[in-house]
Every structure is written in structure tokens, then in C-alpha cells.
Design goal:
The complex is a heterodimer of chains A (about 140) and B (about 280). Chain A is mainly α and about 140 residues long. Chain A contains four helices and no strands. The longest helix of chain A has about 45 residues. Chain B has about 280 residues and is mostly helical. Chain B is built from twelve helices and no strands. In chain B, helix 1 packs across helix 11 and helix 4 packs parallel to helix 10. The longest helix of chain B has 27 residues. The chains are: A mainly alpha (about 140), B mainly alpha (about 280). At the A-B interface, helix 1, helix 3 and helix 4 of A face helix 1, helix 3, helix 4, helix 10 and helix 11 of B.
Amino acid sequence: MTAPMTASGARSAGTAASRSARVDRSIARILRAGTLVSIGLLAVGVALLAIAGGSPLERTLPGLDPARIPADILALRPEGFLWLGLLATLATPLLRVAASVVGFLGAGERRMAGLGVAVLIVIALAVVIAQGPAA
Amino acid sequence: MTVLLLLAGGGFGAGVFGSLLGLGGGILIVPLLTFGFGLDFRAAVGVSLVCVIVTSSAAAGVYLERHLANLRLGMLLEVFTASGALIGGLIAFLLPDRVLAGLFALLLVYTAVTMLRRRATSAGGASPSIENPDDAAGAAGAAQAPGPFRAALAGPGYRPVRLGAGIGGSVFAGVVSALLGVGGGIVKVPLMHLVMRVPLKVATATSNLMIGVTASASAIVYLLRDGINPLVAGPTAVGVFAGAMVGSRVAQRIDVRLLRLLFVAVLALTAVQMTLRALG
């Protein structure tokens, strides 16, 4: 059983729904763009790896060093594109969360925006803790 | 060059099968990399997490545009899946390979049983009406006065119930995802659908949306602890992405019942191999 809705109530529900749809659409665009960029970078890295030859299982790379990525990319070394592709892959869902926070704040939904911030805090904690010494 | 093609081809196969059977690729990629390419378990999990993020991001965009995913419910639960994933990612570096392989064998058995039960349910006609608001749990949920926050999580024709159980289960799903390199949908979908009374399609779409953030939280730990080899992750992820695209396009034209049976057999065999690995 639903209570009858007033005209202003119906209008505000309609506005909220269209706002929500707008947030969904813009987040979907971010996810699609992020995926395309990540896969594009990884695909270029794989192509360069194929040109370089050799088995990827036999090569060892030093760990991630973001400062080296621009130089590797300019020199068309596969690892530069692969590292950047990996970073873009990991960043895409986080951009989605950041965009949700902005969208919810714009819609006045502070609690939902707070949840997004909480997710980003957990991710920041992961970065800090992972850089600490492994047991 | 051959190994590169095999990695991309293996990823492609995992992407196609995962997409056809409604699974993330993780359950296939980890055995592929450990048994097929001799990677140690943790290295395979790191690569698998990257692949899982790629497929999740690609599919989640589509689900959001079709308004199938519940973004608000996803945001609430992913605080806890991400926390679980952070914990799981840290635990993964403390556990021996053999323990992880044993846990993965258990996951394979659970997945195989779930798929067999799904097949039995669809063969037996309509599944139990769990979207009916008049059933016992629906009535229990309706009896709770919906606060503004709970109301914000509702979708057309449903309102999630038992948030506490959903939150606890989400932490567990995050730990499983991080330890075993899977998306965790195998935990999240039943949790949302059967426990929180969210319609199956919405639960599947929302789980997919959450997988990206969950896997990112643990993948960051793997990445910063040198647990992801980009030379392996690159070709595998590109293959998985291409395979998932192809799988989603042919899914409507393929009868997946036989495929599912075949897949259950593969899962069972892989579970035996993983168990042997765990036993050393």
C-alpha cells in the first residue's frame, strides 16, 4: 500500500530520479573511458613486448618506479606502457568512487558522499600499509 | 613470442568462458597461470586481480547505464569489501603458497556445487520467489521502519534488508577476493540476493560494480609489494578483455547448459590438482 503522493512530492521524486540517472551516466562514461585507456596502454605494451621478442616469463623487472615511466614511454620500452596501463587499471574504479562523491555532494546526499570518502580512505590506508615492511 | 601469445590466448579463453557462465575470470586465471605457466600462487593472484578489475570496469559501465546496478547499496557495501580486501591482501603475504592453494581448492568445489545447483534449479522450473515482498523475510524487512538512509538504498520494487549481515558478508567477500584473486561475486551475489533480498539482476550488477574497488584495494597491496608482474599481467588482461567482449556478444546465441556441465568437470579436476598442490 502506498500513500498518495502530492504534486510537489512527485516532482521532487522525479528530480531525484533524474539526478540519480545523471550520476549513473557520468560514472558509466568514466568507467568506459578508464577501461579503454587502460587496455589501450596495456595493448601497446604487449605489442612492443612482442616486437622485442623473448619470453615474458624469463625477464625480470625491477618493482614499480613511477619516476621511470615517462622515460620508458618516450623510449618506447614496453614496461613503461605496461606499468602505466596497470596504474590506469587500478585507478579507474577509484575515479568512479571520486566521481560518485562529487555527484552525491552535488545532489545534497552527504551520507552517500561520506561513504565514498570512506572507501577512498581505505584505499589510502592500503597504499600506506603496503609500503610498510612485509612480515 | 609463443609464451606471450599463449598468455593472451589463455586470458581470451578465460574471458569468453567467464562471460558466458557469468563468472569473473579469476577462478580460471589463477589455475591457468599456476598450472599452465608455472607461476607461484601469489604471483598468479596478483595478475588475476588486474584482470578482474578490467572486466568489472567494462561491465559495470554498461550495468550503470541500464540502471541495473544499485550505486548507493554498492557504495555502502564496498566500504566493507575494500576493508576486507586490504586485510586479505596483507594476510596473503603471510600465508604459505600451499595454504592458499588449499583455500582455492575449497573455492573451486564451492563454485562447482553452486553451478550444479543453479542448473538443477533452472531445470526444475521457477526458482523460489524470493523477490516476493509477501514472503517471510520480505515481511520482516517491511516491518522495520525505513530510516532515510535505508530508504536511500531502495530500488524499484525492493528494499534491502539485514544490512548488518550484508556488511559482515562483504568483509568476508573482500578477504576471499584478495586471498584468491577472484572478484568475490560468488559470495556477494548470494549475499545480496538471498540474505538482503535484492533482486538477482540487481545483485549481479551491483556486485560487478563493487568488484573493481574491492580488487583495487588488494591489487594495490600486491603491486606495492612487487606481487604483480606487468609482463605477465599485460597480455593476460588484454586477452581477458577481448574474450569478455566476444563472450558477451555470443552469450545469447549459445546454449550454456552443456558448457556449464563441462565447466563443472574442469573445476572439479582443477580442485583435485589444487588439493594435491596444497598437500605438497
